[in-house]
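Hi everyone,

Forwarding the result from last night's run.
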Amino acid sequence: METAGVLKPQARYGLGRVLEPPGAFQQLSWKVDPDPRIPPAEIPIDVQCLMRQNPAIRAIFERRCGVAG
């Protein structure tokens, strides 16, 4: 059981949402749980603009698909 105010590393880093591969961080995961319910360790935020890093997206694509950019 978690003590009030102290989170397990899985909750602290969002590892509970990662489906594949097990134990990976969300940024490196292949599949994330899309359940819209918000667990106690997460905070809902309103995002108006999301900036993605093209070099990182390209590297993931090349690694996963074997295609150079």
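The beta strands are 18-20, 31-32.

Cheers,
N.
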